[in-house]
Amino acid sequence: MSAHCHDHACSSSNARELARDPGWRRVLWIALIANAAMFGVELWAGWQAESAALLADAIDFAGDAINYGLSLAVLGLAAIWASRVAWLKGWMMGLYGLSVLAYAGRLAWVGSTPEPATMGVIGVLALVVNVAVALLLYRYRGGDANAQSVWLCSRNDAIGNAMVVLAALGVFGTGTAWPDLIVATVMAGLGVSAAVRVVGQARHELKAHAQAA
Q1: Cα separation of 153 and 15, whole Å?
Q2: Which among 58, 95, 115, 208 is placed 20 to 30 Å from 168, CA to CA?
């Protein structure tokens, strides 16, 4: 499937192909379960370690679990519903990015320093999980806006996890919270940039659906 699929017929065809592909449904279920489990792990670890980066990643895991659930819900429905869900998911990704920025600002104001050992261990675990999910989703990255948003979420998560591990090393080396806060801010930027891309493609698809109606 082409990553440059921009017309109504192509997006509709992609949606139908995915709905008939049992591998796509299976991958979505695996991703949903993995993200829901990691949300619980990182939420607990983030509070224990007082790490903005870990808590940002925990929120991201929760949002992704919801995203995968929504993607499962629209399988087999008309293509316009997949585009509508992609539009909603794009806004969720953007709000996630803004919420991370706000939380990082709060921690910077308070001045607490996170626990680097917990950050490192949980960051590595999250990276392993997200790389595995990203590899499963890789073949579907060129689908419609809905499938593309799922791939972008997984890709950004893996990048974010690697950055959390680097932040843990930075906190350990400097004894300050700034590496943690910087990584949290960069992760927020990834979320916002991905949101802009997904919302833009979803709007294009919704416009095409309206013109074809």
Answers
A1: 18
A2: 95
